[in-house]
Amino acid sequence: MGKSELYYADTSLKYLIKGEVMELPSGKNITQERVAALETIPYKSLPFADSFTVVKGKGEREFATFEDPNCGFCKKLTKSLLELDNVKVHVFLYPILGPDSVKKSQNIWCAKDKAATYEAWMIKGVTPPEAACDTSAIERNKQFGIQSSIRGTPAIVFKNGKRVNGFMEAPQIEAILAKP
Questions:
Q1: What residues contact 3, with CB distance under 8 A and at least 6 apart?
Q2: Cut 0.85: pTM above it
Q3: Going from the N-terminus, what domains does the chain have, and what CATH number goes with each?
Q4: DSSP H helix total and E strand total for the chain
Q5: Is 95 in contact with 69 (CB distance < 8 Å)?
Q6: Cβ pair 67, 153 in contact under 8 A
Q7: Which terminus of the chain has fewer CB atoms gathered within 10 Å of its CB, N or C?
Q8: Is the backbone peptide bond immediately before 95 cis, with ω within 30 degrees of 0?
């Protein structure tokens, strides 16, 4: 059902089961693994023109985030990313928490230095100054997010297609980036 809502049925189609299926001997969550596979986003399919980048060091390792400027865990993620080096983060503004999120996203997107304005808000609480420009990229991000079943922020997409819904500490991100 949908892109990542799983149901199970017996071969007679008499019973329908909604919920997680666990493999008891290993403790492996079969449903969680299947949902992760269904939610994979091919990295090259991301609409990078509708993002801005935050670069730390040389920026040789990269990943993308979908973030709402009013999301507390997104702010925590942005602060956590200060611990990483040699990364390029493609930030997709994904304002899903209300009208104020849309306005802040528009002001960030229209800022002369998007990355600096974004970090000033997310890390220091400096309200993005009023700015105006074509903000259709934000609406395209929302449509992409809906099509990709991104239901919350932050959502992190790595080059290997792995997607993590929710906050991650810098060492967890580092561990994924270290894998080929």
A1: 38, 39, 148, 149
A2: no
A3: 7-38 (no CATH), 43-178 (3.40.30.10)
A4: 6, 9
A5: yes
A6: yes
A7: C
A8: no
